[in-house]
Batch of 4 targets.
Target 1
Amino acid sequence: MIRRTDRRMQLCAALLTVNLLFIWGNSLMPASVSGTLSQWVRDLISLIFSGSSEGGQGDGLLRKLAHFGEFCCLGACLSWLTGMCMKTIMRSAGLSLACGFAAACADEALQHLSPGRAPRITDVGIDTAGVAVGIILLWAGYLIHQRTKIFGGKQT
């Protein structure tokens, strides 16, 4: 599977920790603070792509895409870590998906503690889908790298 070294394990664990702290830290923000941050990002995107900082109504899609992206990164980190510890891709992917689902459930449960926020089962689905895409991207990249190494004649 993925070659394991102490340095890679430490890097992966650090990235995984930072990713989870970012995700859960955002979930603990009150709705008013989270909404201000979303508005700022939406205004920035509008300014970049349309030349105007006047944003439209609602930021639901932006929030869902952000959740998906955060959990996509989480899925890749989980796969990288489990890929260094397990013998098959399927076991690694299965454990990564289960851990990602648990993290998504914890993320939504944390929102009970935040004023103005509420957990949603649909968000658990979006988050878990992000984890699945992150897992697929990591393993696809790994397999492409391995195939290129074998067929390209480059030995690293």
Target 2
Amino acid sequence: MAVIEELIRSEEDGSISFGNYQLAKKAKKSDVEVRGDRYKVKTFRESTRLERNDSLVFESEPGTTVSHFLEDEAGVSFMLEGPGDAQVILSLAEEASYRVFINGEDNGIMDTGMGGKLVLTVEMGDAENVKVQIARS
């Protein structure tokens, strides 16, 4: 997988890809329309943030590249690439339970609170990219 030079793009499968963790300075792209929603991405080596209609969808520290990000009422899935382990914040349904899978391995159930935030650490190890799946329980 490679960084997203255009910062955000739609994929043929209906997902989006975004982020460029190799940038030394913060870059952003706003007002990208995908399926009727407006997206904004801010990205560089320290952080990657995706907003939909002015609300947080995804944030990582340090910065990452996210490909094939697909979200629906059942959960979210994406591929993650970065320079090392990343802390990821996802905005999901409030007060809900989600089963977390990283590279197919079940990492248990995590709950969101009133704000709907799910915080997880993705260990990159030697992997070029890691498959993350979050399924609503």
Target 3
Amino acid sequence: MSLKEEIMEYVPINEQEEKDKEYMLKCFSDFDDVLTRNNEYVHFTSSGFVVNKNRDKVLMVYHNIYNSWCWTGGHADGEEDLLAVAKREVEEETSVKISNVLYNGKIASIDTLPVVGHVKRGKYVSSHVHLSVAYLFEADDDTQIRIKEDENSNVAWQNIDEVVSLSSEPHMRVVYEKLIQKIKEMK
């Protein structure tokens, strides 16, 4: 199934997701390339919201650019299988291996996320929008974690009830609240 088809099948849980779904589908028709960073205005990213087996902790990284605790994730960079992208980003950013893909491997959240202009690897990146697709994963919280120094300055399992307050990005708090609610409904 193509990414566009996956998004078309996604059932929004609120008005924000309804609008963001419409926006994402419109971007497929308005832009030639939304899967790479060659599109400087909008491009797809994929993130993993990783919980432990007890589902009381979330794997978080302290992101160097955003100066905030956040989920793992990255750019599609031409790949249409965003579930694979999200899994790879978890491992690259933390060294943690996914033990279980939750939510039947389906998209758990869609969001259009603003990115403020910033410097990355010595080059200025203009403000743009991430077309964010997120997945829910489970991993062992006893495995060794590591910092990916070019992207984050800390990695830790955080109490699920503190995740929202750890984020310094108001637009991300709403996303984390949605995902935490989905996790709690799965228990």
Target 4
Amino acid sequence: MVYEKLSKNALRCMYTADLLAGVLILAVIGAADLLWIFPKDLAVGKWISLALAVLTLFDACVSPWFRYNRYRYGIDEECIDIREGYLFIKRQIVPIERLHKLQIRTGPIDRAFHVAKVIVTTAGGDVTISFLERERAEEIAGSLRRRINEIAAQQKREQGEREDGRA
């Protein structure tokens, strides 16, 4: 199986999403620090807030690079194989014959960077191929749709042959 990497737009999208999430987390930390969660004379609370802020900024700056460099996906005639992760690598292998539904989804940040997600639904749940160029997402969805239709037609023919053999 040939594994494909993501485009540079995917990396930009990851950084933007993580930085926006980091800013939101920092705002919550700042609000908690300013309000009465930590008494004014409690220095430990201020140090905890500072440590959380530093960890949040570090994560927002480092995790997209790791996720981008570790993300791989491969699609062949039999299955879809996705490898992703930051600290822990997760591998998902989905047989194409088990697919039930395909979706292409984009969020506001995805649209800004011209990337999309292909969401594949099986009886066991959803699997997402993330951060694809829009055109590539359309190609993948189209080829998977054709393959699903071929498998369904083949199964229908085999079922008809079995029924003819019984009659």
